[in-house]
Amino acid sequence: MSDRPSGNAVIGQSGGPTAVINQSLAGVVEGLRAGLAGSGKVKRILGMRHGVRGMVKGDADGLVDLTGLAVDRLERIARTPSAALGSTRDKPDEAYCQKILEGCRSQDIRYFFYIGGNDSADTCRIVSEKTADAQYELRCFHVPKTIDNDLLENDHTPGFPSAARYVTLALMGDALDNASLGGIKINVVMGRNAGFLTAAASLARGQASTGAAPADRPAPHLIYLPEVPFSTDAFLADVEAVYGKLGRCQIAVSEGIRDEKGEEIGPKLMRGAGEVDAHGNVQLSGSGALGDGLAHLVKTGLTPKGGKAPRVRADTFGYIQRCWPHPSPIDAQEARAVGRYAAELAGKSETNASVIIRRTSNAPDAYASECGRAELSAVARRTRHVPKEFISGSNDVSVEFHAYCRPLVGELPTLERL
Amino acid sequence: MSDRPSGNAVIGQSGGPTAVINQSLAGVVEGLRAGLAGSGKVKRILGMRHGVRGMVKGDADGLVDLTGLAVDRLERIARTPSAALGSTRDKPDEAYCQKILEGCRSQDIRYFFYIGGNDSADTCRIVSEKTADAQYELRCFHVPKTIDNDLLENDHTPGFPSAARYVTLALMGDALDNASLGGIKINVVMGRNAGFLTAAASLARGQASTGAAPADRPAPHLIYLPEVPFSTDAFLADVEAVYGKLGRCQIAVSEGIRDEKGEEIGPKLMRGAGEVDAHGNVQLSGSGALGDGLAHLVKTGLTPKGGKAPRVRADTFGYIQRCWPHPSPIDAQEARAVGRYAAELAGKSETNASVIIRRTSNAPDAYASECGRAELSAVARRTRHVPKEFISGSNDVSVEFHAYCRPLVGELPTLERL
Predict the structure, then answer these.
(1) pLDDT for B114-151, tens place per residue?
(2) Do A180 and A283 fall within a single domain?
(3) Which residues of B touch A81 (CB under 8 A)?
């Protein structure tokens, strides 16, 4: 730690937006106003449009001055889903970093706040290292955000509870729809490397896992995470067992399911070549191909019941998972808190850090959390997976997962069946 | 009209469920209790499990006694999405009708309430004709329900406002997601024959259509209804114009879009044979194929911008549209009212009828509606399409549509952008 430099602050948003990412933006602004900006150490608070891309542009098109943004407008922005500043998936290389450094210099930026996931934490780390190499004093803070919930060091990440709430509500409604007309319903959930969001489908049951056989569970009957090797034979046998007994079967499956060799099932089932992004990932979201592929598997692989092929439907939960305008209230609060905490860290002469969330109480009706700090390198690029204790067998989650996830999603409707 | 026979009543739910179809079930039960059942004309109120299929079964597996169902439980069921009795897509033929007649006879059913869309109204009509032919006195009432909003004689249909609310909220969030990362986003909306639900996407703009060019409209920039012939060339030109100017383009497209010959685009773009249901319809829902096909069209058909292919994503809004557990409040009220009204018609010695909704006021903040009756034959099988005055050009809806639809969906969040 060293004394705090004087200059300006910049905030950026990166990666897939969430329903509460603007709460974090508002939190940083609020925290700066109460601290460094209030005391005069920070003169201007700037926003990067589309993340580091805005910093590189450096002009009015790339940067927006948030210093004087009215409190009520900031509050309305905080309640609006998706990145208000715009987002990016750009990942800076050497040349890109040089441009960011130039941008920071020309704007006298001394505090750099970057709201995003593990790729964004890595961008933050790279920027902090490159500016240090250039002996340009810049303090970089990563503010956590991802619906995938896959950041290390965090109990959970802002954005996840709201997406989990959406998935839970969707599965609750869908379970009843499936019960109304019968058949097999496949729901593909986002999260290519970590299955937390798919696991949240289990909350639609309204109770913790009882360890019952799939057909004796409340729907969803089957849950497939990327952390558990996926076998199409076992999948068909699972579906047949449930459908044979109930005449229906509701399934939640991660877009990132993999076989025992670790190879993704999605691209194998997808007809036509997948699109590859800047981070080398094949596009799974924004396409119904995995769901349709699994539905085709079931239609062709299942023994017809009484000579009649089952009704099979697949829904791929797309971008609405991360931008539904009614977030989890706890998520909104925590996303605000991590932004504010980042600004407070900067005010306390901290240098580079990643803000994290720790759960301090999970007592019934007394859930509580606090913010803390971690090294950027502890969060950057690394992926947290669903831990073993949250998984039950090959197609379910555990009681422990329910205890972990239930407090995060907020109040759920009470449904009644005949 | 003739005096009311004594006997039992039966209620069924049919076709695609909605978020408020159980409000109609509760409404019929409530109305019977206040009228025919209260006065002793109706002794038992039965529910058919899975529509007419339950009537044919006729046993405890097919029929459920609702006579003594507790009021608080009925209320909880009313607030639960999807058909509590189970639904069916069975369409009775001669032999099937004979079995329904036998079922009615053996249970002394004299009042038959069927909640559903135009296929269900037709089932109601067929049952009423066949029982009349057999000189079995049965009074049949159709209670309207469909997210497609395609029933004639009705201002709108229960189920539509809640689905329209879901689509509006989804498009609101998605527009901001699209603005955050840019690119072209295709959203496929349910409604194969009528474009009302797709048209509801326009409410995400927060304002009525101004008649501006697509790139100058708030998102969604482009809206394609099945009522307007769809040309892939015009579509590509539309998308290019918006994307070229804004670097993004949000699209809402009906699953039922058709070319100038009236042939559906979906099956043409779908690789693999479509599934055909009992009513002869090719399966469009529960598959991402149309969205993926349109995305492929755009990816391959659009001139790359600066040598870079655009980011194209497609989400197919699936069954969640009709079962999201947070309905439009007006929809919940009206769905209750049509059920109650059907029971009241029966109590007033009416014979066969279809309940309809009329709008009585569309004054700002003073929307009001009332129930009425129509002949079964006026509603059965026929499809109401989006009228010309609700359509603007080839890719938008009109000011009139906004005035029509906005009061139905309830309060919307106020979003703010930078």
Answers:
(1) 999 999 999 999 999 999 999 999 999 999 999 999 99
(2) yes
(3) 173, 176-177, 415
The domain of B130 spans 7-158+327-379
pLDDT at residue A1 in the model: 47
d(CA A144, CA A371): 11
pLDDT band at A289 (very low <50, low <70, confident <90, very high): confident
In a domain, B246, yes or no: yes
Q: Is the pLDDT of residue B288 over 90?
A: no
Nearest to A180 among B83, B185, B287 (CB): B83
Q: Which among B148, B174, B238, B292 is annotated as catalytic?
A: B148
Residues A303 and A397 in one domain: yes
Q: Does the pLDDT value for residue A272 go beyond 70?
A: no
What backbone torsions phi and psi does residue B298 show, to the nearest 5 degrees? -65, -45
**Running DSSP on this structure, what letter comes out for residue A4?**
P
DSSP state of B258: B
Candidates B73, B203, B320, partner chain A, best to mutate (most A CBs within 10 A):
B320
Residue identified by tokens 């409404």 is B27
Q: Where residue B32 sits, what CATH number does that domain have? A: 3.40.50.450
Amino acid, single-letter form, for residue B366: A
Would B2 be classed as within a structural domain? no
Q: What CATH number should be reported for the domain holding residue A176?
A: 3.40.50.460
Does the pLDDT value for residue B274 go beyond 50?
no
Tokens read off for A305: 């019941």
Strand A391-392 to A396-397 pairing: antiparallel
| CB-CB under 8 Å, B413 with A326 | yes
Q: Using H for helix, E for strand and C for coil, what is the string for B213-231?
A: CHHHCCCCCEEECCCCCCC
Judged by DSSP in three states, B13 sits in strand
Measured distance CA(A18)–CA(A15) in Å, rounded: 9
Interface ipTM: 0.95
> Which of A26, A27, A31 is CA-nearest to residue A42?
A31
Contacts with A77 from chain B: Cβ below 8 Å: 416-418
Note the helical H segments in A145-288.
Answer: 160-181, 196-199, 232-246, 265-269
Distances in whole angstroms, Cα of residue B363 to Cα of each of A306, B23, B193, B399: 56, 26, 30, 15
B323-375 pLDDT, tens per residue? 999 999 999 999 999 999 999 999 999 999 999 999 999 988 899 999 999 99
Contact criterion met (CB below 8 Å) for A216 and A223: no
List, for residues A295-334, the tens digit of each pLDDT value: 989 998 887 766 778 999 999 999 999 999 999 999 999 9
Instruction: Say if residue A309 is in the same domain as residue A332.
Output: no
Task: Check whether residue A195 and residue A302 sit in a common domain.
Answer: yes
Q: Do B176 and A296 touch (CB under 8 A)?
A: no
Instruction: Find tokens 């047949």 and name the residue.
Output: A240
Whether B306 and B203 share a structural domain: yes
Residue B301 counted as domain residue: yes
CB distance B379 to B128 below 8 Å:
no
